[in-house]
Prior knowledge:
41% of the residues lie in helices and 16% in strands. The protein has seven helices and four strands; from the N terminus they run H-H-E-E-H-H-E-E-H-H-H. Strand 3 and strand 4 form a beta hairpin. Keywords: Signal.
Amino acid sequence: MNKVKALVSGVALSVALATSAMAAGVELNASSTGLALQGYDPVAYFTVGEPTPGNWKITASHNDAMYRFASEENKAEFEKNPEAYLPAYGGYCAFGAAMGFKFDGDPTLWKIVDDKLYLNLAKDIQTRWEGDIPGFIEKADVNWDDIADKDPAALQAQ
């Protein structure tokens, strides 16, 4: 287990340094400007089946975050039921949440499981997560109760 934590921590540190503009948000992974999913359209994962950049002119706010959409139709769908399209664990890495950490989720490394969008940190992390999706989701769901309100950096310091 320590090898996994070391791998996750190492990858996360390099990503964190590369994305130092990320806010120290708690329950939601958004940029310092409040942009969620790095501007990708949350509805498109479900309708188009791939990450689709949103248009900066088509936006909606939800839980203090700004979401962009590829079309007015996607925005309308989101506004009808935002919870159906929001990524699990506030957009943080699903594998990281299973390990008790909060690392940036990459919107291009995703999977929909049981109608829920999950993001992961890096391709190798996604591959590892896909090895036991139900088990990692179960662990992440339990951990999320404890880590949702904690600062990501504070979790790494433990």
